[in-house]
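User: For my dataset I need records formatted as: sequence, then structure tokens, nothing else. Please produce one.
Assistant:
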Amino acid sequence: MMEILKYIRWLSLDIVVGGVIFLNFIGDQLNVEVPLAVSLALAVCIWLIYSLDHQRDVRHKLHQKGARRIFHKKKQKTIIMTALIIGLLGLILLFYLPRELIQWGLLVALLCLVYLILSAGLSALLVKEVMVALLYGGGVFLFPLLQIDQLEGIHGIILLQLSLLAFVNIVLISTFELEEDCFNGFSSLSLSLGKRATSQLLGGLLIISGLSALIITYYHHYFMHLEIVYLFATLQLTIILLRPSWFVVAERYRIYADAIFFYPLIFLW
């Protein structure tokens, strides 16, 4: 069982499922019905972005450090062929998606392409992690927000809350993989700032995340379930930040950090 879970994580399938769960949860919160084709389209996009990003990382290096990157290097041809098939599925799904979603989705896709091309330089400018987090939040919220009659400020706030949690998730995981990233020649916010400064930054952002969840719950009772999810996710990431010695064993940090995107199942069950 653990072996299967390991491959699920290495192939980013947990991230894909978490994104689809969050999409449907946001739809439920906004009283928007999410068609199966939209969920599948998001799953395809997330998997392709993560998989192509991994392939870009391992493409020009003969030696990799880290089990996940070694796996992607060894299975490079299989993963690329699978990506082509999944990409074809994505093209077929276009015929079943609303035109407005396709138009805005193309913009998001363009931004993703820019990220994949320029991500090495973006890391040096300390904005790579920010861009990834905003793309994730935007991708999850895109369809539900397009379906509601009137956009309000609160909708932008709850989108930014998810992006903030995604940002903390990405950077927190990277603090556990500093040695691996350095060996592989990858830059990151954690490497640029140093582990201590990064931890202080994440601590401050988690305080903001927790306080915002409490404040919005008080003033916007309708989003209480969403804010409870955000609060639980914030607490879980805080525990990982404060207890690194326990979470570093067997990559627990990655398992528990990515598990925050499954919390909506509490209310979707």
